[in-house]
Design a protein that fits this description.
alpha+beta; 5 helices; 3-stranded mixed β-sheet; Dna Ligase, domain 1; about 35% helix; about 140 residues; two-stranded antiparallel sheet; Arc Repressor Mutant, subunit A; globular
Length: about 140
C-alpha cells in the first residue's frame, strides 16, 4: 500500500470523509515540498477540471485542521503549504541570499516549554519560517 493510501486509510478510520477533491489535493501535496494554492490547483485541474480555487482553499483548511498540512510564509511574500504529518520541521531563511535550511521540530521544544511555563500559553508552531542571515552572508561583529 502506498504512503498516500495509508494516510487516506488512517483518515477514514478517524472518521474523516475523503472526497475525490480531498484525495487529489492530498496526493499532489504529499512529497511536493512547498506549493501555493494556485500551484496545487494547476496540478489538480488536469485530473479534475471542475475544481476551483475556493475548493482548493477549503481542502487546504481541512488538511491543516487534520494536522497534515502546514501553511507558512517563507519570506517570498506568499503563503505556501507543505505536507508535514510525517515530518514536522521549520525553515531558516537567509534575508540576503534566500538560502533555506530545514531544521527539526525538536529545536523549538525549549521555546515551547519556556512559553508554557512563563505564560501558560501552549505555542502552536507547526511549520515556521525563521529569518536572519546565513554564515556566508552575515556581517562580522563590529
Amino acid at each position: 500500500m502506498t504512503h498516500h493510501m495509508e494516510t487516506a486509510k488512517e483518515l477514514r478510520a478517524q472518521g474523516y470523509r475523503l472526497t475525490p477533491q480531498r484525495l487529489l489535493v492530498l496526493n499532489v501535496i504529499k512529497g511536493a515540498g512547498h506549493l501555493t494554492a494556485e500551484e496545487i490547483l494547476a496540478r489538480v485541474q488536469p485530473d479534475y477540471p471542475m475544481i476551483n480555487t475556493a475548493t482548493i482553499y477549503r481542502t487546504l483548511e481541512w488538511l491543516k485542521g487534520a494536522g497534515l498540512v502546514a501553511e507558512t510564509d517563507l519570506g517570498e511574500g506568499r503563503r505556501v503549504y507543505e505536507f508535514i504529518a510525517d515530518h514536522p520541521h521549520h525553515h531558516l531563511t537567509c534575508l540576503a541570499c534566500g538560502q533555506q535550511i530545514e531544521v527539526p521540530d525538536d529545536l523549538l521544544r525549549p521555546l515551547r516549554d519556556e512559553v508554557e511555563a512563563a505564560y501558560g500559553f501552549v505555542l502552536r508552531a507547526d511549520h515556521m519560517g525563521l529569518f536572519g542571515y546565513c554564515a556566508a552572508c552575515r556581517k562580522p561583529p563590529g
